[in-house]
């Protein structure tokens, strides 16, 4: 090193044990359908911001139905749907994982829409004991109650898929679980949380969890070495998330995604474009999405848009539900000005 | 062999894939870890039916460098090599064992690439010494507790002296990553001011490795780890964690009193079809640690 003090970016790079690769402009020209062309007359990206004060099952079902109807959801009838919650770990005191009651309400909703098969799938990041995590987080019981499969993606069969731009990344190809590759529809259902290495973790970051630990390790260290923003964009550019529902009923602020404190935002953030959904959720958290490395990168490479003017928000107004999540001091620069 | 363990072996045999290997679950693609551990379990039963096909599968996964990855098509070596090393040794595949052992001893983590500033920054946040070399899950990434423990267990089991440099360094890494209040997690004892919680699986693997390498029970980390296990075993524990915990408790005299209870609890998880959760790896592991063949994985007991 040159003796100069480490910058925040240097520090984050080291702490995520990253060798950040420079990113050529517009490497993900299309993001494989993530930013499908719309007619000039078509409206903007649509996101629903649905108030939901608690995890009452009736209220959750109604909130999902309302958000679904006011966005552009995928066609579910006759489809094999994989739901990807975030079960990064379990704590009795801290809301680390997506609430299982939200996912249960989503299952009921998808059944009404005629889904042929529903699968819950997650590959937790650093705790290899998925049996324990699924049990403690309530997902094992949920799967049993609803008669749906619960798949540990860390140990799933895998198949290599070429990255969108192998020259831009150390990964060259992604080894993806067959469960995910066989899905007709993928729905990302993360928790609204701050993240000590990425700033925030929402729908796009949630997709780290589809990569199998048997190939990428626990934690998925190869992705850290590749650079967290680049890996997030690589995964989301290679594999389309068809719909996102962010659990912001109770999120996590401070030193997330594991060690923060509960923060009630009382909303679900829903939509078909993961970047637009994440940008909207960031605004709810009092964060400027343009200051979040991976969201800015995703915008630049056209995985969607994070600009306010490109996103039509149905339901509640952002400013009305804005709940400034406490930020770790390292990330205080993410804070969006009021108004 | 107890009838219940014979049933487990029958389950493994019934689900051997046509390519000779085993997946984590019936009908799934053959991978090195479930294949090697199934082979160990079948070998331990004394009936070698299917073993030669299984060994051929593992041989097909070995590269010219000696490396073993996840499966035959994997271009890189990986953490699953620990299990292949144990299987090559147990089944007398001496040449494959020697070549793989040499590769494992050269399978490095990223510790050599960290600058002094990196090491200082990591120490400030996570409170461990990133210069200590262990084993990663995948090549040239960070060394973590579990792969380091698995490779220490395998290397010692195949006759590598605990004084060998890599083994000694692996032991140092494990001891350095201990959670202050007892036990181990994946490998970050702290994150800033927050102590991270230990987990049963990481703690069990760490203790088993330390026991294999002859780290005496008098070391505070050992007693604290065993006490953590004892506390945790009172609650919800998964099948795989219970199996590894049984191995860990057998590794130290201080754990001995818990062994019968944990063994009975693990045995109680066996399903009517002989499997444990219909997971072939867990079935093979449970059969090994519950049976006499536990010696294949279990290190020699040392007094301390």
The arrangement of helices and strands of chain B along the chain is: HHHHHHHHEEHHHHHH
**Under the CATH scheme, which architecture of chain A would be assigned?**
3-Layer(aba) Sandwich
Biggest pleated sheet of chain B: 2 strands, antiparallel
Q: What's the level 1 CATH class of chain A?
A: Alpha Beta
Q: Pairing-aware structural class of the strands and helices of chain A?
A: alpha/beta
State the end-to-end CA separation of chain A. 42 Å
Number of domains of chain B: 2
- CATH-derived topology of chain A: Rossmann fold
How does the overall form of chain A come out from the CA principal axes? globular
CA-based shape of chain B = globular
> What share of the residues of chain A lie within helices?
25-40%
Instruction: Tell me the β content of chain A.
Output: 15-25%
How many helices of chain B? The count is 14
Class from secondary-structure proportions of chain B: mainly alpha
Q: Greatest contact pair?
A: A-B, 33 and 45 residues
Strand element count of chain A: 12
Q: Give helix and strand order of chain A, one letter per element, not per position.
A: HEHEHEHHEEEHEEEHHHHEEHHEH
Radius of gyration of chain A: 18 Å
Low-pLDDT windows of residues of chain B: none
Helix content percent band of chain B: 40-55%
Instruction: Give me the oligomer status.
Output: heterodimer
């Amino acid at each position: 090193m040159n003796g100069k003090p480490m910058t925040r970016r240097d520090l984050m790079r080291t702490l995520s044990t990253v060798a950040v690769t420079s990113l050529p402009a517009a490497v993900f020209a299309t993001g494989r359908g993530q930013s499908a062309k719309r007619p000039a007359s078509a409206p903007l990206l649509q996101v629903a911001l649905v108030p939901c004060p608690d995890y009452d099952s009736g209220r959750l079902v109604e909130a999902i139905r309302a958000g679904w109807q006011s966005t552009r959801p995928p066609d579910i009838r006759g489809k094999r749907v994989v739901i990807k919650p975030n079960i990064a770990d379990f704590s009795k005191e801290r809301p680390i994982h997506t609430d299982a009651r939200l996912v249960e309400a989503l299952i009921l909703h998808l059944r009404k829409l005629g889904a042929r098969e529903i699968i819950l799938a997650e590959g937790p990041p650093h705790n290899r004991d998925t049996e324990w995590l699924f049990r403690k987080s309530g997902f094992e019981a949920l799967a049993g109650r609803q008669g749906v499969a619960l798949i540990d993606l860390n140990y799933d069969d895998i198949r290599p898929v070429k990255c969108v731009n192998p020259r831009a990344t150390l990964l060259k190809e992604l080894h993806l679980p067959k469960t995910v590759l066989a899905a007709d529809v993928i729905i990302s259902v993360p928790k609204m949380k701050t993240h000590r290495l990425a700033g925030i973790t929402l729908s796009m970051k949630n997709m780290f969890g589809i990569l199998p630990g048997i190939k990428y390790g626990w934690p998925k260290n190869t992705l850290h070495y590749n650079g967290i923003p680049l890996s997030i964009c690589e995964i989301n550019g290679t594999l389309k998330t068809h719909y996102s529902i962010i659990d912001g009923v109770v999120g996590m602020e401070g030193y997330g995604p594991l060690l923060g404190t509960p923060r009630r935002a009382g909303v679900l953030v829903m939509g078909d474009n993961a970047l637009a959904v994440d940008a909207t959720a960031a605004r709810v958290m009092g964060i400027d999405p343009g200051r979040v490395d991976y969201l800015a990168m995703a915008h630049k490479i056209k995985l969607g848009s994070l600009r306010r003017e490109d996103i039509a928000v149905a339901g509640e107004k952002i400013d009305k539900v804005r709940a400034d999540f406490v930020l770790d001091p390292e990330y205080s620069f993410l804070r969006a000005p009021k108004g | 062999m107890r009838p219940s363990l014979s049933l487990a072996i029958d389950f493994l045999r019934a689900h051997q894939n046509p390519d000779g290997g085993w997946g984590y679950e019936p009908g799934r693609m053959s991978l090195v870890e479930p294949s090697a551990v199934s082979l160990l379990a079948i070998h331990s039963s004394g009936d070698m039916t299917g073993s030669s096909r299984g060994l051929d599968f593992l041989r097909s996964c070995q590269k010219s460098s000696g490396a073993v990855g996840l499966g035959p098509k994997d271009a890189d070596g990986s953490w699953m090599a620990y299990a292949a090393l144990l299987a090559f040794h147990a089944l007398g595949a001496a040449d494959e064992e020697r070549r793989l052992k040499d590769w494992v001893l050269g399978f490095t983590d990223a510790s050599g690439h960290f600058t002094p500033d990196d090491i200082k920054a990591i120490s400030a946040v996570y409170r461990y010494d990133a210069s200590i070399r262990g084993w990663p899950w995948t090549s040239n990434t960070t060394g973590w507790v579990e792969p380091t423990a698995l490779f220490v267990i395998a290397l010692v089991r195949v006759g590598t002296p605990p004084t060998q440099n890599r083994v000694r360094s692996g032991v140092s890494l494990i001891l350095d990553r201990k959670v202050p209040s007892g036990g181990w997690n994946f490998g970050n004892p702290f994150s800033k001011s927050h102590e991270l919680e230990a987990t049963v699986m990481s703690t069990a693997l760490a203790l088993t490795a330390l026991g294999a390498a002859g780290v005496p029970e008098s070391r505070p980390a050992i007693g604290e780890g065993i006490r953590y296990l004892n506390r945790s075993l009172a609650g919800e524990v998964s099948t795989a964690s219970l199996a590894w915990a049984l191995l860990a408790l057998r590794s130290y005299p201080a754990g001995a009193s818990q062994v019968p209870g944990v063994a009975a609890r693990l045995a109680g998880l066996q399903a009517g079809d002989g499997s444990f959760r219909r997971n072939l790896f867990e079935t093979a592991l449970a059969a090994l640690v519950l049976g006499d063949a536990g010696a294949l994985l279990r290190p020699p007991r040392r007094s301390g």
